[in-house]
Automatic annotation (TrEMBL):
<keyword id="KW-0963">Cytoplasm</keyword>
<dbReference type="InterPro" id="IPR043128">
    <property type="entry name" value="Rev_trsase/Diguanyl_cyclase"/>
</dbReference>
<comment type="function">
    <text>Poorly processive, error-prone DNA polymerase involved in untargeted mutagenesis. Copies undamaged DNA at stalled replication forks, which arise in vivo from mismatched or misaligned primer ends. These misaligned primers can be extended by PolIV. Exhibits no 3'-5' exonuclease (proofreading) activity. May be involved in translesional synthesis, in conjunction with the beta clamp from PolIII.</text>
</comment>
<keyword id="KW-0235">DNA replication</keyword>
<keyword id="KW-0227">DNA damage</keyword>
<dbReference type="GO" id="GO:0003887">
    <property type="term" value="F:DNA-directed DNA polymerase activity"/>
</dbReference>
<dbReference type="InterPro" id="IPR017961">
    <property type="entry name" value="DNA_pol_Y-fam_little_finger"/>
</dbReference>
<keyword id="KW-0460">Magnesium</keyword>
<protein>
    <recommendedName>
        <fullName>DNA polymerase IV</fullName>
        <ecNumber>2.7.7.7</ecNumber>
    </recommendedName>
</protein>
<keyword id="KW-0479">Metal-binding</keyword>
<keyword id="KW-0515">Mutator protein</keyword>
<keyword id="KW-0239">DNA-directed DNA polymerase</keyword>
<feature type="domain" description="UmuC">
    <location>
        <begin position="7"/>
        <end position="186"/>
    </location>
</feature>
<keyword id="KW-0548">Nucleotidyltransferase</keyword>
<feature type="binding site">
    <location>
        <position position="11"/>
    </location>
    <ligand>
        <name>Mg(2+)</name>
    </ligand>
</feature>
<feature type="site" description="Substrate discrimination">
    <location>
        <position position="16"/>
    </location>
</feature>
<comment type="subunit">
    <text>Monomer.</text>
</comment>
Length: 405
């Protein structure tokens, strides 16, 4: 691996709030909360003005309202955010040779080797200015030799700014920061580190790696490396077709419409469950049908980022109905979700009423415990199980035994 890489991490500032402000300028400069508006809703995103009141994302909306009664609460709209996200992606795609889109508002860009021609810092600055000019959205970036340091640098740059960490200065940059800023350190790990008296990244830098491994197992090694500014992970080219899919070939070709619809529903439902398991969202659905003469047809549709059954299944059925035109035996059907990005929870926090959200959570919990057939739509009952290894983490399917009924 080349030692002098140039990796940029770009992150749109309070993305959902910034989108809403473009649509309604009255929201500018005010504390704004995006999320479920009901009593049991949760804050999906909030403006810096709201953060000054101690509000943060994932906080119960009721608590946020108590902390800042004058806050303006907006129910999110994933369709709008998807459009803005696409606009930003388009600018980046046109400007750089290699980028990775990791969530609806976050990108890594590999500018290694571009120094000879432009100067990476200048190029990154120009991309950022173009995004601000063309979309109106504030965005920040960090530039360094790897993903971890750049991501942390973006956090330090915010709001609406940029930071460059010169090669060789990674450790002193990280040293005074809270261990909470290490990307993989969540609430639980943070508390454990605090219990050990470790608050600043610099303390980890002075510890031998083995000590952290003793406490945190394999994660300890990753934490230690990140704390020391070591990260060799590559920027993986983002393909809009980055996808998960499932197919079903029939033992005997069929024209049984009821059976077809049942199977397709079950396939879509199971695939949406896989998305939620991987905390992923899809923005493009493809349906495929193959007839007994091996003629194959596919049709796809862009949708707002989602992982919700009630948004996805109707689209799959719509595509199936459009595509299934020939009165001929069907040999195979397939469903594919592409344009995947991270960040399921954040979108789902406002996209759905908590009733629907709680329903999915309860159903998914049952699937994790009792297998993917423990609960399903009546329309999909006739389909065989299509449970599988988690396509994102490689985790085994829920309840391995007894999968084939
Ligand atoms: Mg962001």
């Amino acid at each position: 691996m080349s030692l002098d890489r140039s990796i940029v991490h770009m992150d749109l500032d309070t993305f959902f709030v910034s989108c809403e402000r473009l649509l309604d300028s009255k929201l500018i400069g005010k504390p704004v909360l995006i999320g479920g508006t009901s009593d049991r809703g949760v804050v999906a995103s909030c403006s810096y003005e709201a953060r000054n009141f101690g509000i943060h994302s994932a906080m119960p909306m009721r608590m946020a309202r108590q902390l800042c009664p004058e806050a303006i609460i907006v129910r999110g709209n994933s369709g709008i955010y998807t459009k803005f996200s696409d606009m930003v992606t388009e600018v980046i795609k046109e400007s750089v040779p290699l980028y990775e889109k990791t969530s609806i508002d976050e990108f890594y860009i590999d500018l290694t080797g571009m120094d000879k021609f432009f100067g990476c810092h200048q190029l990154a600055s120009e991309v950022r200015q173009r995004i601000i000019k063309e979309t109106g959205l504030p965005i920040s970036f960090g530039l360094s030799v790897n993903k971890t340091v750049s991501k942390i640098a973006t956090g330090e740059a915010k709001p609406n700014n940029q930071i460059r960490i010169l090669q060789g200065t990674e450790k002193p940059f990280l040293s005074p920061l809270s261990v909470r800023k290490i990307p993989m350190v969540g609430d639980k790990t943070f508390r454990s580190l605090c219990d050990l008296g470790i608050h600043r990244i610099g303390v980890i830098q002075q510890m031998p790696m083995e000590m952290l491994v003793k406490v945190f197992g394999k994660n300890g090694q990753s934490i230690w490396k990140k704390a020391n500014g070591i990260d060799n992970s590559p920027v993986v080219q983002y393909h809009e077709r980055k996808s998960i899919s499932t197919e079903r070939t029939f033992d005997r070709d069929t024209t049984d419409v009821r059976k077809l619809e049942s199977i397709i529903t079950a396939m879509a439902e199971n695939l949406a469950y896989q998305l939620r398991r991987g905390n992923k969202l899809t923005a493009c659905i493809t349906f495929k049908i193959r007839y007994s003469d091996f003629q194959t047809y596919t049709m796809q549709k862009r949708i707002p980022y989602s992982s919700s059954d009630h948004r996805i299944i109707p689209i799959v059925m719509e595509l199936y109905k459009k595509l299934y035109q020939r009165r001929m035996l069907v040999r195979l059907v397939g469903v594919r979700f592409s344009h995947l990005v991270e960040g399921g929870q954040q979108i789902n926090l406002f996209e759905d009423s908590d009733r629907v959200l709680n329903l999915y959570q309860a159903m998914d919990k049952m699937r994790e415990r009792y297998g993917d057939r423990a609960v399903m739509r009546a329309a999909g009952m006739e389909a065989k199980s299509i449970s599988r290894w988690n396509p994102f983490t490689g985790a085994p399917p829920p309840l391995l035994a007894n999968r084939r009924r």
